Amino acid sequence: MLQELCDAAVDLVPGAEHGAITVIADQRLQTMAAVGKYAAVLDEVQRRHAQGPVWDAARERCLVLVEDLATDIRWPAYQREALSGTSIRCQMALPMLTDGHLLGVCSMYATQPRAFDTAAADCARVFNVHAALAWNTLRRKGQVQAALASRDVIAQAKGLVMERFNIDAEDAFALIKRLSQQSNRPLVEIARRLVHFHHPEGAPQAEGQAVIRRSRESVREATRC
Fold this sequence. Notes:
Arc Repressor Mutant, subunit A; Beta-Lactamase
């Protein structure tokens, strides 16, 4: 999906020869998709020096245009290495935003100075809005699918605990939740291990047995109260 969006950006924006979609996580740049041989290289240069158009586009939430890298001195370390290591002379970076949330930065590069005029910038802005919406829709779909999968595995684990220990649904869920807290592991992970123990295809048996053992101990503790 992101590679397709990156390909489309380079195809649709006049003057673009290279492109990248980049995310910033834990104050580090990560190239998610790239077109051309220089886009990922320049992402790495910006990551290493912690400066450049991608950083500024993300921080300021606006389009950052470099008309001529040879004369633009806003990022000295980036400028020096980009000029010595690539033939890129013009760059445009746009934050990909949805509902005020920064998904990433879309960058386009050209080997000619002033390759991106006003029309190219306007085209990039329009494309960027649609690309961000498409990315966000895909991201949310993935979150929904993950949530549904988690719900299903928790329901399976709850049913197994109810059957094994002859307790009702509320107590079974409370037991799984307690195991999660005691082991400092996500509830869905505990549920998945319980299910894998009962359906052991490719599952770690020792871990599943440990979960069951802790389950028995928790049930005993609960019945003493």
